[in-house]
Amino acid sequence: MSELSGKTVIITGGARGLGAETAKQAVAAGANVLITDVLDEDGAATAAELGERARYRHHDVGSEQDWADVVAYAQAEFGAVHGLVNNAGISTGSFLADESVEHFRKVLDTNLTGVFIGMKTVVPALREAGGGSVVNISSAAGLMGLALTAGYGASKWGVRGLTKIGAVELGVDRIRVNSVHPGMTYTR
Ligand SMILES: NC(=O)c1ccc[n+]([C@@H]2O[C@H](COP(=O)([O-])OP(=O)(O)OC[C@H]3O[C@@H](n4cnc5c(N)ncnc54)[C@H](O)[C@@H]3O)[C@@H](O)[C@H]2O)c1
Predict the structure, then answer these.
(1) Is 73 domain-assigned?
(2) For ligand 1, is residue 21 a contact (CB within 6 Å)?
(3) Active-site hit among 56, 73, 152, 186
């Protein structure tokens, strides 16, 4: 596979799980990859395993400053940014009536506001590169009503909606925006 040769992709939550596998596949397809996460030890180890076309950077997706730093770092290391995979996420496991408002807000902040800040921050870099691609990891819980997913499901429906808004606004800039909706996959 060589269709991503010369392209640089930022992958959030890439220290482990689906994000780490996404990074592995992107490197195998020829891309430069910047893995970001809050798990610094795992993130650095994952990037080291992937070799010289991978880097790791500490990044809380809820922080605007961290996002600005990540984009600047990717441009400094690899010259440009062509892709973003918004993969970082946290989940819930409570019934709606039992979920605390505090936890609901925390899940929305990471899973939805994090994706929004990411798109907002990366779009100027994608425009500079002449176009690109954003892939937002939603969930099957963003396609249907699943029990025990009040905050999580709401955030993933929100990611799906935000993706569609991005797609209609950014197509004119040659930027594609898609969401992916995985089913249950065993990860930590
Ligand atoms: N595994 C599944 O069954 C499944 C199904 C549907 C969707 N998803 C989605 O796939 C994505 C990856 O999930 P996973 O199963 O690999 O889980 P995981 O917990 O193994 O990986 C998620 C990563 O996101 C990171 N993260 C969490 N909060 C963060 C923050 N504020 N800033 C930066 N990084 C942060 C975590 O440290 C972790 O490395 C998530 O968005 C999840 O909702 C997973």
Answers:
(1) yes
(2) no
(3) 152
